[in-house]
């Protein structure tokens, strides 16, 4: 449950982020806030301190508070201008190999890794629950979890998805080894070599590689940095191409952080049904929401249709990265195909992580942990936006995510994301160049930064800004 001071802070933050409160505008005094919100002085002060931590407001010496003047310029249009059938690039493959090899390089400041820091996970609680679990059932060490996976975990996943607006039962859930296996199995279930698969551009590089691995052709659609792809864009693409499937991330997409509005989801679902396009929804970041309300899945509007529809998720980003507990939610005819493919692909999953996730969900620990993690990630993302605004060259723009922990950054003309990747690596900083999030071009001036760190990332971000400045000067 959200505390009173957090509710006040979230309301004011929403007014600032929606432009109702302008940069430099004075906020009500603490006394006025106490009167209008009917709260104590300590609660009002806690709300303003929370907004300070989010880098949204600043205290004025003996004069109250105001909205911060320095804000990052928002991205206002898609990174690519047109729909295109993309082809594999050896140059992209080479830079992606370097990017992935740098992820675990010792000593690199982790501004590229798309995973929250170790300290943000409930390690003490996980250790305690694991100890009790294995003391009571040591045979778990010698137990496989055969498809479709733990019946209790499937029930709990179905319950969470239903609570978000997509009515499903345990019989529509299968457990996988992480979200990537789930995504790959869904693609294999509906896509044949030579088929066209639509994705938004930019999108997670793993999606691009998974689509290519099944022999399909990638159709890249312009993705808006705040609300994803437009339904009209997908409709036009379907009229021009025989699109077999669409792999989309409606909730806090990687790398932009975009979140699709509900009216767009309904319209997009209608396009998918009209053209018989299968939907594979990557829902990996949906529960990392800053307002503590996970959005309605796009699949809520497609599960009742006659075309295949899959929701892919995982607990790797929210609870247990090493456990690799993922899942697929789909109507039973298509889920059976996924389960069959799971049996011939990896046969089984590990029973211990599945049982551990069950304990965390059923005890309420998971939801308590999520509230704390989301508050910290919200603070980190806003702080990262502020740092980019103050340290990077004039003309730099960023996305403005409402969930997750990645920031999509457009550098000004004359700068280059891949060159910045190399110079940052030499300086001990890990980032991801934008070029790996597409099979085509046009993303050379973009980079993805991660706000998943639990430590102080001010120094590496400021150093990164100086490197970007040096590019323009050089």
What does this structure look like?
- The mean pLDDT is 93.
- By secondary structure, the chain is an alpha/beta fold.
- The chain contains 15 helices and 19 strands.
- It is globular and about 65 Å long.
- The strands form five sheets. An eight-stranded mixed sheet has the order 4-9-8-10-11-12-13-7, with helices on both faces.
- It folds into three domains: 4-67, Orthogonal Bundle (Arc Repressor Mutant, subunit A); 73-79 and 87-120 and 368-473, Aspartate Aminotransferase, domain 1, CATH 3.90.1150; 123-364, 3-Layer(aba) Sandwich (Aspartate Aminotransferase, domain 2), CATH 3.40.640.
- The protein is 43% helix and 16% strand.
- Helix 1 crosses helix 3 (41-53), helix 2 packs across helix 3 and helix 7 (178-190) runs parallel beside helix 8.
- Strand 8 (196-201), helix 8 (205-213) and strand 9 form a beta-alpha-beta unit.
Unreliable segments of 5+ consecutive residues = none
Largest pleated sheet: 8 strands, mixed
Can you identify the CATH superfamily of the largest domain? Type I PLP-dependent aspartate aminotransferase-like (Major domain)
Helix content: 40-55%
- The number of helical elements comes to 15
Strand content: 15-25%
Under CATH at level 1, the class of the largest domain stands as Alpha Beta
Instruction: Quote the CATH topology of the largest domain.
Output: Aspartate Aminotransferase, domain 2
Please indicate the count of domains: 3
Mean pLDDT: 93
* Quaternary structure state of the chains depicted: single chain
Helix and strand composition category? alpha/beta
Q: What is the 3D shape?
A: globular
- Give the strand order of the largest sheet, numbering strands 1, 2, ... along the chain: 4-9-8-10-11-12-13-7
Number of strands: 19
What is the CA–CA distance across the termini?
A: 52 Å
- Nearest-angstrom radius of gyration? 22 Å
Query: What is the name of the CATH architecture of the largest domain?
Result: 3-Layer(aba) Sandwich
